[in-house]
Write a structure and sequence with these properties.
With 720 residues, the protein is of the alpha/beta class. Helices cover 41% and strands 11% of the residues. It has two domains: 324 residues, Anaerobic Ribonucleotide-triphosphate Reductase Large Chain; 236 residues, Anaerobic Ribonucleotide-triphosphate Reductase Large Chain (Alpha-Beta Barrel), CATH 3.20.70. It starts with 10 loop residues before the first helix and ends in a 10-residue tail after the last strand.
Amino acid sequence: MSLKELNDVSYFKLNNEINRPVDGQIPLHKDKEALKAFFEENVEPNTMTFPSVEEKINYLIAQDYLEEAFIQKYSMAFISSLFDYLKAQKFTFKSFMAAYKFYSQYALKNNEGTLYLESFEDRVAFNALYFADGDEKLAMKLADEMIHQRYQPATPSFLNAGRKRRGELVSCFLLQVTDDMNSIGRSINSALQLSRIGGGVGISLSNLREAGAPIKGYEGAASGVVPVMKLFEDSFSYSNQLGQRQGAGVVYLDVFHPDIEMFLSTKKENADEKIRVKTLSLGLTIPDKFYELARNNEEMYLFSPYSVEREYGVPFSYIDITQKYDELVANPNIRKTKILARDLENEISKLQQESGYPYIINIDEANRQNPIDGKIIMSNLCSEILQVQTPSVINDRQEYEVLGTDISCNLGSTNIPNLMSSPDFGESVRAMTRALTYITDSSDIDVVPSIQNGNSLNHTIGLGAMGLHTFFAKNQMSYGSPESIEFTDVYFSLLNYWTLVESNQIAKERKVSFNNFENSAYADGTYFDRYINQPVVPHSEKIKDIFNGIFIPAAEDWSALRDNIQADGLYHQNRLAVAPNGSISYINDTSASIHPITRLIEERQEKKIGKIYYPAPNLSNETLPYYTSAYDMDMRQVIDVYAAAQKHVDQGMSLTLFMRSEIPEGLYEWKTETSKQTTRDLTILRHYAFNQGIKSIYYVRTFTEDEEEIGSNQCESCVI
């Protein structure tokens, strides 16, 4: 019975029995039975076997399943020894969902889709060999990290590494549009190409002149940002990898742009079809000044990008609105309109209730924490990529007169519970940094020169984390408790330290630093002041015990690292970013990203299959009290945990707010008149996040009384 004819199987039924309590207990053993049945009924009878590793690899190359070039960088004796090592680790999936997700979405199948051609160990081996680029020691180290699930490459990387017929290894892209037809046209072409390649695309429209702005002296001629949004939406719908996936994009607009109200209206349920965008995501870049005006219940001015650029000679995104607000208001050459800040704030909250959008980028906070010379103006489809950009100038022949820098995202994730058990935390992180470096070095998106230019100059990567709630539960810590925040603080300071160490080592080996390193806070040493003056170390006995045996850098270690970086530079402009997690977290048998779980038994609708149930990782009588659902949690606790990590993450984090339409009694002290979620609740939480130094907020997900989720994650690109 081939994979195309699997009908009479027992594993779905066994898995579904998890959701039926027996004597008040969750029958977790049913998931183990489902896992066993899945291998017996599905995997084992439908996996092609080979007498030896060499014969397997030769077959996969001959049949155009596997690239030959990366295999030829190693001897077959070494490759066989690596496969033998992986087999000796006796890897097993811990849940039915983990195995099902791997074999349905990641395992290589034959052209007919009737047989599996690789196991988890095989996929790990090909990833390790591919990313090590001929370095046997690194290949063995990466294999060790991945088979013990301490490191997980992003979905595009893990899925495609080594395959002959594959998509790109990168996760997503960021483009900015400047205020001219050439840039709009070129950006639409770029979006088509990037969506074809695979991966979500973020686009900044803040520089575009508003509706009614003049065009070559004609008053009231411009159509504004909404028609351009519709063009991008149609582009993503068309360029969908032959129907295999929906093209995905997000458009960002500055909250002081005159089209802001119409921009938000495009996502309203009752929006006119002429302006409504159905599949495009929305994001706002919000300067500090907006929070001040809203807090003081003042009017706010919206400024014409067209007149701002004419007056200052730079695109609108590169103006510091907070700093120049009063100057812009007083300048008669700047076209402007007035609205009430709180009215706009209320519209933002209403839309977040209705759809989960818009994403929020606290743009001044992102730039305040940014150690790189230049300006961050936008983010990506999952709101965790925050890097400086420079605009391009395109002539009438659609050629680049000035080639700016746009962004591609190369992502991977640490598995917190497993990395904390690593024989050498630092060496693990350094190996992960090397793997991600190979992806950025080998990426060559020549169809979009601004993306190619940004990648070749800046060598950016984004190492993140998953499994934080699982780690808390295993160690009997409540999410958001002081000790959980302390752990998060120390853990992410270690990720920061070791990625800096390895980036410095690579720069020293290659005698290359990222572009404009000399004007960064790394080069002048100021970045390290806070670590030297107040090193991050465990204080409570519990966290001291957890980190026992793991090297914690002291002031002199940070000082030595500063000196090394000032002497030899850094290879990567950016190193850390915490993405959301999708199927990859299931395969890792851990909680997604660093946010709390949503249910003890998660229910997943799997296309033609039906419902699959996934118990919280390591769920037991001991961990049960520490697995509070995000929907039953004060979101300020989640924000506090993210804020502890954000101090050390040079980019951003996909922070999701989880709300109930009926808020549990006593959760928020201001809920005295109604238990229903209101716009005020979301406004208070956004301001709290801003005051805690949070750079970005991803979705607002609302769990309704009829158990529907509004604003659930639609992005499969960077959900590593």
